[in-house]
Amino acid sequence: MTQPILAIQNLHAGVEEKKILKGINLVIRPGEVHAIMGPNGSGKSTLAAILAGRDAYDVTAGEVIYQGKDLMEMDPEERAREGVFLAFQYPVEIPGVNSTYFLRAALNEHRKHRGEPELDAMEFLTLVKEKMKLLHLPDDLLKRAVNVGFSGGEKKRNEIFQMAVLEPKLSVLDETDSGLDIDALRIVAEGVNKLKRPDNATLLITHYQRLLNYIVPDFVHVLWDGRIAKSGGKELALELEEKGYDWLIKHDVAKA
Amino acid sequence: MTATQTTPAAKQTDPYLKAFERIERAGASRQPTWLFPLRKAGIARFAELGFPTLKYEDWRFTNVAPIAKLPFKPVFEATRNGLTKDSLTQFPFAKLPGTRLVFVNGIYAAELSTASTQQDIKVGSLAAALTSDSALIEKHLGRYVRTEDNAFAALNNAFFQDGGFVFVPAGKSVAEPLHLLFINTSKDAGATTHPRNLIVVEREAKATVIESYVSLASAATFTNAVTEFALGDNCVVEHCKFQNENTDTFHITALHSHLGHTMNFSSHSIATGAKLSRNNIRTSLDGEGIEAVLNGVYITNGDQLADHHMIVDHARPNCASHEYFNGILAGKSKGVFHGRILVRPDAQKTDAKQTNKNLLLSDEATADAKPQLEIYADDVKCTHGATIGQLNDESIYYLRSRGIGLEMARRMLIHAFAGEIIDRVKHDALREELDAIVWDRLEQHEGVAVGK
């Protein structure tokens, strides 16, 4: 079997005294799409934040190996340059920082990291033009400050646009479907599907099954109280949609 | 032996009074007769006021005792210290096209300057113009600067030698910026210069003026400048004061402007240098329909202090004044903002806004803000606000999560904060250069960028 892109083993994490993740095990291999579902407060967003390197959480046990390296040892920027991308649930508005400038700086950091020459302004614009069309983004978006004055849908599409430009190995999409109408959802899903390659992987974090109609996962995991309570194929999502999370818990309890 | 009893203030002003007597004897004959009473009144006012102490409300955040303790050495020589016209490129705005008047230790240096080719305006040394245009200058000089509460401005009245003189007659327009470049070359502690600028722009005229202060050496010198603006009806004037003197210097300026009706004035202050800098900005809106913008950013580190003290005086109806000042403070540095908006009884429909925002990059940096509204009219719109904060962690994390390093992320956010001010500069080339200056400074001073 090929080397996993991501291997999480017995991950425990929390904030100060509060335990949020209580032993997560997850292996993601190249070409795979995984979905993590779960009710509010189950630890979904915490897992996403820990993978991206947010320092608000303490990892108390376990390990996260990304392409053979200890991910927890890396700064957020190192993770990004190594190919980890988090599409934020709530993209941050940064007044005064121009979108083009920001994204070109980010891309050039990735290129430097890979030993490739930096792109100048013209080369960059040529590259991003196509990717903007993919996400149906307005032409003036790049002239605006990062996420400032963007609609909710534009912000989410902008996240996937950045992902398209940075071409990550592992994309973590944190509730990218929340707050999107059906048309925007379709655009976002189309973008994600087009970016799928045999050598990269996607981790979708979502509350609802809806997104999974458009981005079909290979594996579905249900997160419950900081643990993966159940894993299965794409049909698990449909079952959850039909029966609700309660079903799983009762099922789980009955089994125990 | 009996000690002579002197009050502390008198002791400190003594050397100045003695120097004045010497200069009075030596130089009075070379200057127009009308000037002498102005000087005399200046030294008398200075003697009366003395150096302000922290007990004065207007000076409670800024301690000028170190200036009073300096030996007073008025500089009358423009020692070049190797300065040539080619070497001017080391200073900001040197590559901008247009007229540049260079002053070395406050004295005009013709061979370093680029004279104006425009025949219908006057741009030159004030000292020379005191002879050639005495009547014109008499009409304006000392008429706008207020000394009743400003000992330093009074001192400048008494001692000034030279500075820039700009006269743009009615209806004329100057496209390129007029640059007044003040270079301090002195290596002598206490070396004091009193640059004096007079800018007269008549009705329906248009001009951009840059006033910049830099140093070539490092010493505890004292720059005490006064700039007066007499701006006519319907004119459009943009002014940029840039101060980047060495960090041992004391820099005090008064910028007093008198504005005609329906004119448009924007004045920017960029303060990055000096150990202690204080800008006394006093703007009189004495006509209807004026739009005035006072806009500034101060970027300090180490033990620097940057103080902007403003009085915006609304005397007539239907005027708008906006003040925007952002402070970027690292190390143990300190920013002071004192903005007073005065709306007199006649000044109905005044629209006055004032904002001061401070970014503290270290635990030891401090900011003092004192916004003040004094309103005697009843139909006005006045707001003020001040904030003191740190870089936003969420924003830094977002930038880092895209591969941008911590230092670069901080720099981008600080630059954006300064950009709020720089973006208000209307002259394109000037704005671009200011933007580059801010960015360079953030790059050079790692401490500023990472808040060490």
What does this structure look like?
The complex is a heterodimer of chains A (256) and B (452). The mean pLDDT of chain A is 92. In chain A, 37% of the residues lie in helices and 28% in strands. In chain A, α5 (152-166) runs parallel beside α6. Chain A is built from 7 helices and 12 strands. Chain A is an alpha/beta fold and 256 residues long. Chain A has a single domain, classed as 3-Layer(aba) Sandwich (Rossmann fold). In chain A, the strands form 3 sheets. A 6-stranded mixed beta sheet of chain A has the order 6-9-10-3-11-12, with helices on both faces. By secondary structure, chain B is an alpha/beta fold. Chain B is built from 10 helices and 21 strands. In chain B, α4 packs across α5 (134-140) and α8 (406-422) packs antiparallel against α9 (428-444). Chains A and B meet through α2, β7, α3 and β8 of A and α7 and α8 of B.
